[in-house]
Amino acid sequence: MTHPMPEPMPAPIPEADGYTPRIVAKVEDGVGWMIVSNPRRRNALTLNMWRQIPGAMAMLGADPSVRVVAIRGEGDASFVSGADITEFGRLRSTPEQVAAYDHAGRAAGEAIAGCPLPTVAVIRTWCVGGGLGTALGCDLRIADAEARFAIPAARLGLGYRYPGVKTLVDLVGPSHAAEIFYTARHYVAEEALRIGLINRVLPVEGFEAAAADYLASIAGNAPLTMQAAKMAIRGATAAGEPANIEAIDAAIQACFDSEDYAEGRAAFKEKRAPRFRGR
Length: 279
What we know:
This protein is an alpha/beta fold. It folds into two domains: 22-219, 2-enoyl-CoA Hydratase, Chain A, domain 1, CATH 3.90.226.10; 223-270. It has helices spanning 47-61, 88-91, 95-113, 130-136, 153-156, 162-172, 174-183, 189-194, 207-219, 223-236, 245-256, 259-270; strands spanning 22-28, 31-37, 68-73, 78-80, 119-123, 126-128, 140-144, 148-150, 187-188, 200-202. Strand 2 (31-37), helix 1 (47-61) and strand 3 form a beta-alpha-beta unit. The termini are close together. The relative contact order is 0.11.
């Protein structure tokens, strides 16, 4: 499996009182975690945090021990509540500042969407605005039963970038996407599940264990197969035949040529769990 070269992560910037919003990257049992850590503001994303995301995703994607990347907020009070609007007056008021801020957000979104590994948003309570945009960049979204979802752009006068709108439309369809934007209302977890915004609702009690089991079920599968499937799935959402069809075909053939394919057949024959190595 090929991996992108890691990019440096900008250093976290402490506030006047020493409080430091940051992006944390760590690896546990084959799961690469990208944690949005700003609990004082329900894990809102500061400009510096947006800028840290590409480096964190590159680090996790380059780690050969990582089979799935999971994104979550610090603690259980929020996934990501959106961009930190307390910065807007200082960092997003002039055209130049808006352009720089949007560039950072776009780069972060591209880093998440471009990750070659399976990606899962692990959502607790609030998932709003830029937080929902972050979750939409993942392949899968799981949430606790008390989670709430919204894009409040129409209540703030913000414009939403086309790639984010297209991702939402591809996921839930134009009618549901229009309602999400036009009403700016909150959707409860079961409603989000019904319209296809999320993949699974997990109970609040025991959520951590249930989420760990879900991630482990992905991490235990054949990496090359998941990589090829991800390439094909992303290609299927493009208009017409994907531009990288030859790369997709090569990734599929690599599965059949791999040691993992032989291991999968042997494990099936021997009635045991396979031990995949990504080669």
